[in-house]
Amino acid sequence: MTEPAKRKPADQDLIRAVWDEARDLIKRLEGSTVQRFAVEAGDTRIEIERGIPAGVVASAPAALASAAATGDEAALAAELDSRHPIKAPLVGTFYRASQPGADPFVKEGDAVDAGQTVAIVEAMKLMNQVLADASGTVAEIVAEDGQWVEFEQVLMYLQPPEE
Question: What is the CATH number of domain 84-159?
Fold first, then answer.
């Protein structure tokens, strides 16, 4: 029988830094709907999992049904359905520009191509590009610059090109 492989001791400073970031993240996630978030450093793993509040799921279909009751609202709902959402690839802070004072990556009315950078999300001091996964025209930017966003939260909508 062989001895179990000895674990390398984790770097305590790294663990403390990851823990501090995770603790800060937990504070910022109060009331959020994040399903799972994990950070690994060597043999150390920190996981955060949150549930969806029951009232949120139940109220969404009712809100859609009541909005469809009137003609104008039904037309608006149909228009919204044709738009393509660009969603946050991860939890973090949403920024429309690469740095403060710079022009935003896109504005409402701009045409974008699939694969084009449309925003960034900062997570744990890393800037992550948000890429358009479809071509179209920016119809609406939903998220505010500097706003905390959740995983797969809609950041903006694209109007698909006319065919």
Answer: 2.40.50.100
